[in-house]
């Protein structure tokens, strides 16, 4: 990998606050659901993994500034691990010391507490943690497909977050991405011989291709590569996080015109 992973567990990064509190803020633009993982390690190993902080905050910053409200959901609810931090990046540094934002990451909602009718879009965050707990979660799958099919909403993902969409099926039994251009972190940049990769339940690239998706990627990497295919928006790595968020906004604006 071409970036340094810095793992921070919730006990060191989060300040104590009531786990029962819920954000009541309203937005005139509507709500978007960020899907994140509770996984702390690669599979059953002792190798730390986490949610990619930049892939969360770079998209979050764009959407919040555009007037949207963001909720966070994870398979188990509660605190999530964050990592891949770069405090020299002004946006990451700002949110790392933002009490209200960090409180959201400590008190993520459980899937059963989510009403899909309230959301215009979902965004699957990345990081190695995204490979575990989310792709197989039936409740999260149901939420996403209700947003997509019932609300005419947007499904988006960044980097390893694309793992979260591999099992999504439409009402007619087809995979959501079948026949669509889709992107995520490609095998080219994985170390397939490494212990961390051997814990992955599947290759994002290969499973999407096997199931009829048109998986494309940039061989350069870290160059803001993303794909938009109607209401499916996916990005390759952290550099595309803000662009994916901007494309969500554009897609929602087109629906309102």
Trace the largest sheet across and list its strands. 3-1-5-6-10-9
Category by helix and strand content: alpha/beta
Mean pLDDT, to the nearest integer, reads 91
Secondary-structure element order, N to C = HEEHEEHHEHEEHHEEEH
Please give the radius of gyration in angstroms.
17 Å
Shape: globular
Percent in strands: 5-15%
User: Which consecutive residue ranges, at least 5 long each, have pLDDT under 50?
Assistant: 1-27
Number of separate domains: 1
Separation of termini?
A: 42 Å
Number of helices: 8
Would you identify the CATH H-level superfamily?
A: Class I glutamine amidotransferase (GATase) domain
What is the CATH level 1 assignment? Answer: Alpha Beta
Q: How many strands, what sense, and barrel or not for the largest sheet?
A: 6 strands, mixed
| DSSP strand tally | 10
CATH fold-level label: Rossmann fold
The percent range for helix content is: 25-40%
Tell me what the CATH architecture is.
3-Layer(aba) Sandwich
């Amino acid at each position: 990998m071409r970036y340094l992973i810095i793992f921070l567990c919730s006990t060191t990064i989060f300040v104590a606050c009531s786990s029962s509190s819920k954000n009541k803020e309203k937005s005139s633009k509507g709500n978007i659901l960020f899907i994140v993982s509770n996984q702390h390690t690669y599979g059953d190993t002792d190798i730390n993994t986490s949610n990619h902080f930049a892939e969360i905050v770079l998209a979050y910053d764009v959407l919040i500034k555009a007037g949207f409200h963001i909720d966070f959901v994870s398979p188990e609810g509660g605190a999530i691990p964050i990592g891949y931090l770069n405090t020299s990046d002004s946006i990451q540094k700002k949110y790392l010391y933002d009490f209200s934002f960090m409180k959201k990451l400590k008190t993520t909602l459980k899937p059963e507490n989510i009403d899909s009718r309230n959301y215009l879009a979902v965004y699957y965050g990345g990081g190695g943690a995204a490979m575990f707990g989310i792709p197989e979660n039936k409740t999260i799958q149901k939420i996403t497909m209700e947003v997509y099919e019932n609300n005419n909403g947007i499904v988006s993902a960044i980097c390893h977050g694309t793992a979260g969409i591999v099992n999504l099926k439409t009402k007619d039994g087809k995979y959501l991405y079948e026949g669509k251009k889709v992107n995520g972190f490609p095998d080219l940049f994985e170390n397939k011989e490494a212990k961390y990769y051997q814990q992955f339940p599947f290759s994002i690239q290969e499973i999407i291709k096997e199931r009829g998706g048109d998986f494309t990627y940039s061989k350069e990497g870290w160059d803001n590569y993303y794909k938009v295919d109607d209401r499916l928006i996916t990005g390759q790595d952290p550099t595309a996080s803000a662009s994916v968020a901007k494309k969500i906004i554009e897609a929602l604006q087109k629906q309102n015109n």
